[in-house]
Amino acid sequence: MANNTKIMVENLIFYYGNDKALEDVSMLIQENKITALIGPSGCGKSTFLRVLNRMNDLIPGTKLKGKVLIDGYDIYSNTTDVVELRKKVGMVFQKSNPFPKSIFDNVAYGPRAHGIRDKARLTNIVEESLEKAAIWDEVKDKLKQSAMELSGGQQQRLCIARALAINPEIILMDEPASALDPISTAKIEELIRVLKEKYTIVIVTHNMQQAARVSDYTGFFLLGELIEFSDTNKIFTSPQDSRTEDYITGRFG
Amino acid sequence: MANNTKIMVENLIFYYGNDKALEDVSMLIQENKITALIGPSGCGKSTFLRVLNRMNDLIPGTKLKGKVLIDGYDIYSNTTDVVELRKKVGMVFQKSNPFPKSIFDNVAYGPRAHGIRDKARLTNIVEESLEKAAIWDEVKDKLKQSAMELSGGQQQRLCIARALAINPEIILMDEPASALDPISTAKIEELIRVLKEKYTIVIVTHNMQQAARVSDYTGFFLLGELIEFSDTNKIFTSPQDSRTEDYITGRFG
Amino acid sequence: MISRKGKDLLIQNLFLFFASISILVLFLIMAFLFKEGLPIIEVVSPLRFLFGKSWYPTYEPPEFGILPLIMGSVAVTLGAITIAIPLGVATAIYLSEVANLRVKELLKPVIELLAGVPSVVYGFFGLVVVAPWIQDLFDLPTGLTALTASIMLGIMASPTVISISEDALSSVPISYREASLALGTTKWHTAISVTVPAALSGICTACILGMARAIEETMTVLMVAGGAAIIPTTLLQPVRPMTANIIAEMGEAVHGSEHFHALFAIAVVLFFITLALNLLADYISHRFKETGSATL
Amino acid sequence: MKRQQIYQQVAFGGLRLSTLTIISVLGLIIWFLGKEGVSALSWEFLTQAPRNGMTEGGIFPALVGTLCLTLGAIIFALPLGVFAAIYLTEYAKQGRLVRIIRLGINNLAGVPSVVFGLFGLAMFVEYLNFGPSILAGSLTLGILILPTIIRASEEALLAIPQTFREASLALGASKWHTIYKAVLPPAIPGILTGTILGIGRAAGETAPIIFTAACFYTARLPHSIFDQVMALPFHLYVLATEGTHFEKTLPLQYGTALVLLGLVLGINLIAVIIRTRLRRKIRW
Amino acid sequence: MERHFEKELHALKENLLKMGALVEQAIANAIKSLVERDSELAEKTIHSDSEIDELEIKLEEMAIRLLALRQPMARDLRFIVKGTKIITDLERMGDLAVNICERALELNKEPPLKPYIDLPRMAEKAQLMLKESLDAFVREDTELALKVCQDDQLIDDLNNQIFRELLTFMLEDPRTISRAIRISFISKYIERIGDHATNIAEDVIYMVKAKDIRHGHTD
Amino acid sequence: MERHFEKELHALKENLLKMGALVEQAIANAIKSLVERDSELAEKTIHSDSEIDELEIKLEEMAIRLLALRQPMARDLRFIVKGTKIITDLERMGDLAVNICERALELNKEPPLKPYIDLPRMAEKAQLMLKESLDAFVREDTELALKVCQDDQLIDDLNNQIFRELLTFMLEDPRTISRAIRISFISKYIERIGDHATNIAEDVIYMVKAKDIRHGHTD
Ligand SMILES: Nc1ncnc2c1ncn2[C@@H]1O[C@H](COP(=O)(O)OP(=O)(O)OP(=O)(O)O)[C@@H](O)[C@H]1O
Ligand SMILES: Nc1ncnc2c1ncn2[C@@H]1O[C@H](COP(=O)(O)OP(=O)(O)OP(=O)(O)O)[C@@H](O)[C@H]1O
Ligand SMILES: [Mg+2]
Ligand SMILES: [Mg+2]
Ligand SMILES: O=P([O-])([O-])[O-]
Fold first, then answer.
1. What is the pLDDT, as a whole number, of residue E217?
2. Domain presence at residue B38
3. Residue B13, domain member (yes or no)
4. Does B120 reach chain A within 8 Å, measured CB to CB?
5. Which one in B117, D171, D239, F216 has a CA-CA gap of 20 to 30 Å to D115?
């Protein structure tokens, strides 16, 4: 598989009101790879992630400079259709947040919103997405049951299935396993690793071990700056920047 | 330092209503050591911990068989004064839960409840406790400020200070760092390690690495049973039970 | 000095004492209602009482059929909720989903304040402003009609509906909205397919409580509904809802008379209607609780 | 996709319109009463008794009466309500019984106020033989707002995170100390809000006092709690529905309505302000 | 689905075995080049040592990556740490095979001293030990590993025997000295190969039983 | 306050240095027992090897415990992994010192062959290399480590020179054969000691630069 740049971030600066949350960040995110973002609390990981599907639009008073290109198109240009963008760039949140609907309706939510009404086609999409999210076997007999009755780990995989159902190309995950027990976490991590064959994945985590385990590339943020970005292997065995080294060896702060 | 048994649990069985949550658990907890309890979600770690200071009394319909001796006294005998017991066995919770009062009043809460009114003495206790909890330097200039304005990690250390202020002998901690970022976590862990010189500490964590890092002894629970209890070193390098090995090497479930 | 344990026990019993008093008082109310209301059964069968078409308590022999009163209440209440529910729910959705934070923070407390306006003031307003206006508009002999009462009650009940619905909508976790938007949907789609369904039980509760507010309202209907104890065929007729009837006649009813008991019996009926509505609201809010929706 | 955007525009337009309607109607009522009533307001109006068969003069006795009744209701209901709430949430064993009691209380909060009036009449006026009086009226109003206060206090107490109780108990504090020092302080705003809303309700109620406390007219101020009094809401009702001098007393009616409205809204406003103030200070 | 980590562990194991096979082959070829006086083979064997060296580096990097990225514990950890030791042993055995080849090249330039009998036997034994130690490693078979440890004595005995024999040769005919010394070196190399196989076997026992048996340690 | 982990890392380092010092001493004593024909010292040195062996086990356990309990990353991880390798090297050097002593004991039973000149020089060089490699390790000094790697050539040369010299001896007088062979073994042992020091130096370079320089690898 050739290494293609899927997302290109150039000199990104981001403000909340007058507070600079990101400072001149440039990053190339590769297609079909897992890119992990690590760093201490408040360093701007989530902000960066949410810039990529313009979820930050929801917060009033934010300002952005620089460029974010996905497949070469500037997603912050005036002509960008945000709704289309978000169909292409799925997102999974820190706390699993299934809708209080049946498992089926949760996964079918996106496709339905985009106008798919045909029952057979929906069923197909739901089944496929649940399978991709490695949760089909656990729920296939209770698709009509409320999603709220699933365990935390299952809920999170359901949310991944829901994101997959709109057939995105990129999946953003903001600490998808931080609220889970180790066993569910292991399952999610395994799943993420499988998903990269079809999707480009960007994952925020404050668990360095997790970044080490799942990702191909890792970026280390500090106070809104991208300090180091490279091969995960390299970051964790021989980082170039001493601040990265300090952080991953636990000598920081 | 001689190894003295501080807490002795013998054939403990615990029920929530009709559900058995702990099954014939026996454990000797050493004085001035850190004992970590690990295991998958729902295995009874928190239940066991709360048995030790009778916080489970608050839940109606629970039943307990077996013996729990602290310093040789049966804490479940009819003559036990629960309030006295809890003065001796402090507790720190998973989510930091300072009272919505000033930092000073938070720490002074326990001593005041036990009848200490003398301002100078209270000030003394507060200062000492905050120092022991390694947070004095950060808050000494704002003792009157609300505790809710502290960061998560600071709040948790404040809660530890609050527990220390009643001068307990044993400190129970239920996942004290699970809601914190890695840097705050490291600070709490370092603190725990320092505290063991004066206190006997029992800590529940579902982070195996954390158990490995901080504790002297580790107990592995599974479905309410204590599968293995020994030297932390031993548990993590050469566990005796294959279920322990499976769990800590991530092959479980 | 008493021991700490003793002190704790003493305080606990003190609380028990006060709690018992207030609960006792509250149950006394029901006891009294039934004691004074039930004797009417000796005069008229419950069915005749409920479904009798004439209410002539002072005739000889008196007639105690409260159907006209019930129908009066029903007419006024239905009228009120057709105004209060659509407007109230729409406003609640606007406040929680569309309005920006500043507007919301301004309007929400204002609307809650208005929920406290005394009913006699609404009655007064209805009497001096709305009734003449209705009279002119429809060219009626009197402006004091079921419609006038409906309008006033509708206005009165809408703050209740708005306030409780908005609470329900706001307490739908923000994460649902984020999840929906992140799937590439519009705000409106998100509102109707995620937020409102999630808050549905809260909204239903709001509507039921709004309706209860209309049914139990006394002074307003007494002042603007017209007071005729007939079964209405249009909203433009005067009506005499149950509450208005009780208060209007209680002054004249001789203590211990059949009339007196009949009025208490109406109160019992009202009590059961409110009970039913409250149970319904309770049921709805419990029923959907685990789906994360907001309730009272 | 463009179609979705259009749907959204149309729908939002509808929502805006509804809000505008509601707000303007409610605004209209207040503006109207204000406009008409403000001309009647004067120092004399507030400090003098009605004269001339209540066609002239002020509303002083009614104002005093309302204050007496409200105060009496609070003195009776506040301690009872708060204590009952504390018992129910903190001490009582949570089970079927408490649930039934809670349901009963909830239900009474929704019972028509006229029913309370009937109860007051039967219980205090007749059975206990207080006659129509401040005492009977206060007790009736007190009972009327008791469910409101219990419910608001209970909600405030239940909203206190369980962790506060656990933290306090784990520090070896006794149960009472825990309630007094750890649970009650943060619950105060909620309890206070409920109480103040109750006060507003008591001040504005008419039906319960018609049979239990209010009289058409008395120029004299009450001397004891067994006196009958005038009350603002009843005064307004009487003026507005007494056909004979309706036109003549219209300014008085507007004035009374405005004073009553101002009194009740003022009380409620205090509740809102206190709540937002304290909420901001005490956060968890 | 199989865990990713296990796949990586598996890959490490596979590569270790591959390295083991290469080393075995190198030893066999070295002895063959000596016995059959095949200098070409010796050259080739020396040359192909770079493959083993590269594997060593690759494997060590794999192990470090696993340690850094996967935070292994317990058995997995012991496997990886002991793995890195085994890698070093194997690499060293590869070097010893090269040394044998070098001596063989030198010896092949001179007339044969005597037919080799004990030396090939010894080499065979050493190869067997290597093979068995790796088998024990793969199968986590402590009994086999123990056998390897015991077999080492045999090799030591053979080495001594060869040395004594060579001494006799030298004393009898000083012209044989330089050849005999070279042969004694080869014997020594093989003995060292046996030692390294023993190291591996000891590591296997530690890995499985989490017990150190080196230096006669028992508890 | 200093991090607990760093204390443990420090303890590991200290113990490694202690082990290095013991090995250095053992080598010095071995050579001394040879040169001064002091069999008692040789016996003592052989005996004290068990101390080194115990340290090896202890250090390896420390390293494994650190890996299991602290999940070190980056520099720390390289330090510990390379530490375990260095331990093995040191232990092996200790064994080689014992081997020298064994040969010395045998030689001391016979008349001296000739005064030792190159051998002590070589041994001194090897000791220096060990010392310097450990210094480099402690100070994370790659330049010093590189020097050690270069110095190895010197030892190799001396070894060859000694071997040629001994060959002459043997050819001249076959009675010296068994002694000469023993001495050549000792020379070989010292050469190996130098090799192990070089290994340590290479490990230091890898540890500091995260770059493998073994087998002439560069990228
Ligand atoms: N909605 C917001 N309004 C204002 N400032 C914000 C907002 N969200 C985040 N920030 C600020 O921006 C900075 C970066 O926040 P961000 O949430 O991206 O951090 P993070 O790296 O995701 O941290 P964490 O690990 O705690 O989630 C922080 O200083 C934070 O206080
Ligand atoms: N209050 C309760 N009432 C009834 N069952 C309970 C209660 N608390 C816990 N349990 C049950 O007891 C078992 C043990 O629970 P416990 O909270 O001790 O687990 P845990 O090991 O602490 O898990 P976690 O890591 O998720 O905190 C679980 O099966 C749980 O469902
Ligand atoms: Mg974040
Ligand atoms: Mg728990
Ligand atoms: O004042 P009321 O609610 O009884 O009309």
1. 47
2. yes
3. yes
4. no
5. D239
